[in-house]
Write a structure and sequence with these properties.
Blueprint: E1 3-11, H1 15-31, E2 36-41, H2 46-52, H3 58-66, E3 69-74, H4 89-99, E4 104-110, H5 123-126, E5 130-136, E6 144-151, E7 157-162, H6 167-182, E8 187-192, H7 198-214, E9 219-224, H8 225-234, E10 241-244, H9 246-257, E11 269-271, E12 283-285, H10 304-316, H11 321-336, H12 354-368
Helix pairs in contact: 1-10, 1-12, 6-7, 8-9, 10-11, 11-12
The structure holds nicotinamide-adenine-dinucleotide, 3-isopropylmalic acid and magnesium ion.
Magnesium ion binds near residues 250 and 254.
Length: about 375
């Protein structure tokens, strides 16, 4: 059996709390012989800053590059509000994404039937929702230069962020979206703001040309990003795959999370290019949510986004779709039984803790795999 190297980065805030639940499941899968993980642990974000005075050490960067998959929970928090900008917790996550060239961020938003009433929208709007946001992750305004604050010397300052996209960056993320759509409901919605941004003009042009050249069988539509935000809360089931840039993808995925009941439900996979000979690709799996400082340390965070991120690792890094399906079904069953963490409680009076939710999913998984 192949041994997979897994680097676990719990990070800050609720990060270690939700990661502990994934570690239980990974230990179970290893113990039962489904998969052999060689697990190493590292530091990222504020927890790395406290020890190394940087948001990720060179040693942990090397281990991330060598891993078959990295699992990261969350970084950031008010404790590090005053550290220098370059050393802030989020810089560790951004460096992992950039240095590992994880350009494709897959953020599925699925509304489990049992949670249709937990959404802030009406049941009929979200029931059966299953969409995939494909977010470009290594370009755009997150990394464009110049990025600076200049003192103008007259009591004024000027802040500059730069949105940059090259043809190849748009093409490769577009290809991921079209290929995914072919395995789903065969529809891609591409989103930008070509009405005000040059990068939007190029985005639209490149995605349209790629469609004609390589994916004419897939339905393609374009929606301006502001209108798409509106459509996401108006009629979200019209979408199958949404492909968009780094910043719009960040915002739209937080919006999409509320369609599923909570930000605590959304997993993600950040993937690099496949190696042409081995087929392997660098990968990092993390929930869409952050370190949730408002609930950290209380043991009430929802671990489902983190656990589903392990599911995505089984699917996209370890070729174990069947096991991933069983894990997803175990989550669905726990929700069908009415078990709820506080964020998805809706009207329910009884809620369970982070570890009780992890245990309940593990118990269902034990049944699902035997
Ligand atoms: N991938 C990451 O590491 C990541 C992602 C987003 C934000 N952040 C960082 O996290 C910090 C806090 O940011 P924020 O408060 O804007 O966003 P957040 O995602 O941490 O929290 C937003 C809201 O959602 C709730 N929430 C989030 N995850 C939850 C979960 N699993 N269970 C229950 N409730 C949950 C929080 O309690 C909070 O009310 C910031 O430093 C930010 O930069 C990190
Ligand atoms: C923490 C932050 C850098 C990150 C982002 O903006 O990409 C987060 O919001 C996310 O959605 O993964
Ligand atoms: Mg975000």
């Amino acid at each position: 059996m192949t041994t997979y190297k897994l680097l676990v980065l719990p990070g800050d805030g609720i990060g270690p709390e939700v990661m502990a639940e994934v570690e239980k499941i990974a230990a179970f899968l290893t113990y039962e012989g489904f998969v052999k993980f060689e697990v190493e642990k590292g530091l990222v974000g504020g927890s790395a800053y406290d020890v190394h005075r940087c948001a990720i050490s060179e040693d942990d960067m090397e281990r991330a590059q060598a891993a078959d998959a990295v699992l990261l929970a969350a970084v950031g928090g008010p404790k590090w509000d005053n550290v220098p900008y370059e050393l802030r917790p989020e810089a560790g996550l951004l460096r992992l994404r950039k240095d590992m060239q994880l350009f494709a961020n897959l953020r599925p938003a699925i509304c489990y039937p049992a949670l249709a009433d937990a959404s802030s929208l009406k049941r009929e709007v979200v029931d059966g929702l299953d969409l995939m946001i494909v977010r470009e992750l290594t370009g755009g305004v997150y990394f464009g230069e110049p990025k600076q604050i200049i003192d103008l010397g007259n009591g004024q300052k000027r802040a500059i962020d730069t949105q940059v996209y090259d043809t190849y960056e748009i093409e490769r993320i577009g290809r991921i979206a079209f290929e995914l759509a072919r395995k789903r409901r065969n529809k891609v919605t591409s989103s930008e703001k070509r009405n005000v941004m040059k990068s939007g003009v190029l985005w639209h042009e490149v995605i349209s040309a790629l469609h004609v050249r390589e994916f004419p069988d897939v339905q393609l539509e374009h929606q301006l990003a502001d209108a798409l935000g509106m459509q996401l809360v108006r009629r979200p089931k019209q979408f199958d795959v949404i492909v968009t840039d780094n910043l719009f993808g960040d915002m739209l995925s937080d919006v999409a999370s509320m369609l599923t009941g909570s930000l605590g439900m959304l997993p993600s996979a950040s993937l690099g290019e496949r190696n042409a000979t081995t087929g392997a690709r660098k990968a990092l799996y993390e929930p869409v949510h952050g370190s949730a400082p408002d609930i950290a340390g209380k043991g009430i965070a929802n671990p489902i986004a983190m656990i589903s991120s392990l599911g995505m690792a089984l699917r996209y890094s370890f070729n174990m779709d069947d096991l991933a399906d069983r894990l997803d079904r175990s989550i669905a069953r726990v929700l069908e039984k009415g078990l709820r963490t506080a964020d998805i409680a809706g009207g329910a009076t009884k809620t369970i803790s982070t570890s009780e939710m992890g245990d309940a999913i593990l118990e269902e998984l034990k049944i699902a795999v035997h």
